Amino acid sequence: MIAFIEHGFHHENDAESRQNDAVETSDQGDPALWKEALKEIQGTVDYDSIFTGLAGKDFGGINRTKPVAVIRPAGSSDVAAVIRAVQTTPNLTVAARGNGHSINGQAMSDKGLVIDMRAMGDHPSLNVVVASSAEEDWSNSLSYADVSGGALWEEVLKRCVLGYGLAPRSWTDYLALTVGGTLSNAGVSGQAFRYGPQTSNVTELEVVTGNGETVICSEFVYPDLFFAVLGGLGQFGVITRARIPLQKAPDMVRWIRLVYAEFDDFTRDSEFLVSQSKENSFDYLEGFVFVNSDDPINGWPSVTLDPDQWFDSDYIPPGSGSVLYCLEVALHFQHHHHPTHVDSEVERLIQRLRFVKGLRFEVDLSYMEFLLRVKKAEQQATASGIWEAPHPWLNLFVSKRDIVDFNRTVFNKSLKGGIGGPMLVYPLLRSRWDSRTSVVIPEGEIFYLVALLRFTPPYPSGPPVVELVKENMKIIEHCTKKGYDFKLYLPHYETQEKWKQHFGSQWPRFAERKAKFDPMAILAPGQKIFSRTH
Ligand code: FAD
């Protein structure tokens, strides 16, 4: 089937239209040629401003661009056809767009093409293979899911758990993100301390490279491409399929929050727990900073897990600072486990922790409810209009060496009033990350994820977004000036010079990978790492 929808590119006014057309024509070479080539694909090509408008926005809401067309591929051969068509032009670029949940235009292609990977989300090749006995221990398990690069993690969850009682072992907090989108970054949540990021939990990929070749790769077959693409920021190829190992899914989760007044106690306990064996720790561990006040968004009420729970501030030790800390842990269990068994397991793990007694909150919920917990927050934020507002978020990895100073100088000073959303901080272990992937992280075994997830009402009800972006920049400058060992997670830079600094000693490897797999720099221009060449 050839589906080719040309509605004509719509412009707000004629003068702008003529100007843009002039730029677009010189950028694209002869549009007739590549448009002709795209007529061969099985999916759809859309030039309508409704579609290109959507593909020119993202969750961050800070950048706006104008792609010339949006392609909804029917399969990997369409993705390859698009890349080959783009190769024939002097300047056209192409971005795979997952679910557009980037903050800084990373999935955009200004005056280029956008491949809407969600179109492949329900591709029939999505397949679950169950080993004869689904081992709880992944290393012994042969079960896996072959999922499309455009599938959402929440689709993977529902299919694997409801259909087979199995689940991937490493997640993100929020699951309306695509498999290809998170694997292009890292994919981190409270399971990463044990299993590593999602980039450490994939055994095979199908990738369409910037050369237009479709390659199946793994640790053993074309490993250079496999590891380049993982955490590769979309620079080397489009992930059209991923093989995700599965383990037995638990039925239930006990979700627990423990409050700390002292950062030292919080870090000691969280570092202790992430360093223990599976038997002697929780199945999930995260943490966050909150404001020591009754502010409904940033303060005490943000800690409780159930409307029936009450944060009794009388328990807060006298002399506590402007911010407090919350360790968030979860323990998996099965329906057949007796409640007293779960209680005693939790007590065993918790007994030596130094949280503020009296400030402990817990609920039991199903595994699916737990993994979909952010969906509730999304629904509330959508109702209040905050989900659609700009999100100038900042994500960092900060070394254990520097996290105490970061806490003193950032959380307790510039951010002591909160940011209108979660301020996550929790430890991860370097040894769980594969250094062969393209991700860069701080030195040292323990480093912290710091996520400043700002949710503020749109201006003028909330602060202007430029002010918040400036605040983020100040934090980054502060970390640089202080000589912290840190890296941006979900990085964003405007110049190649800055990208070289970001990658540090790994830059030559990253540039070599680009020269090999996308020598014309066709892919993911929104990352602003390389410029298109002829
Ligand atoms: P996009 O934003 O669409 O794309 C991101 C990049 O990947 C772009 O460069 C794009 O070109 C490239 N890309 C997309 N698909 C492919 C593909 N198939 N092949 C090759 N390249 C591709 N991250 C975490 O690690 N943990 C979290 O808990 C977490 N929670 C989040 C919650 C929310 C509400 C939001 C908005 C983001 C969160 N993130 C989290 C960040 C998220 O993982 C990244 O922004 C991710 O890139 C978003 O996935 P996406 O499918 O929307 O990708």
Keywords:
alpha+beta; 20% strand; FAD-linked_Oxidoreductases_BP; disordered N terminus; binds flavin-adenine dinucleotide; FAD binding; Uridine Diphospho-n-acetylenolpyruvylglucosamine Reductase, domain 3; Vanillyl-alcohol Oxidase, Chain A, domain 3; 534 residues; 5-stranded antiparallel β-sheet; 8-stranded antiparallel β-sheet
Summarize the structure.
The chain contains 16 helices and 19 strands. The protein is α+β, with helices and mostly antiparallel strands and 534 residues long.
Can you put this structure into words, describing what you see?
The structure is a single chain. The chain has helices at 14-28, 31-38, 49-55, 76-87, 153-164, 179-183, 192-195, 223-229, 263-275, 339-350, 367-371, 373-384, 400-414, 465-481, 496-503, 507-517; strands at 44-46, 69-72, 94-97, 113-116, 127-129, 144-148, 166-167, 204-209, 214-218, 237-245, 247-248, 252-260, 284-291, 323-333, 360-366, 394-399, 423-429, 446-452, 486-488. The protein is α+β, with helices and mostly antiparallel strands and 534 residues long. The longest helix has 17 residues, at 465-481. It binds flavin-adenine dinucleotide. The site of flavin-adenine dinucleotide has 35 residues, from strand 3, helix 6 and strand 10.
Topology diagram in text:
Elements: H1 14-28, H2 31-38, E1 44-46, H3 49-55, E2 69-72, H4 76-87, E3 94-97, E4 113-116, E5 127-129, E6 144-148, H5 153-164, E7 166-167, H6 179-183, H7 192-195, E8 204-209, E9 214-218, H8 223-229, E10 237-245, E11 247-248, E12 252-260, H9 263-275, E13 284-291, E14 323-333, H10 339-350, E15 360-366, H11 367-371, H12 373-384, E16 394-399, H13 400-414, E17 423-429, E18 446-452, H14 465-481, E19 486-488, H15 496-503, H16 507-517
Parallel strand pairs: 2-4, 3-4
Antiparallel strand pairs: 1-2, 5-6, 6-10, 7-11, 8-9, 8-10, 12-14, 12-15, 13-14, 13-17, 16-18, 16-19, 17-18
Helix pairs in contact: 2-4
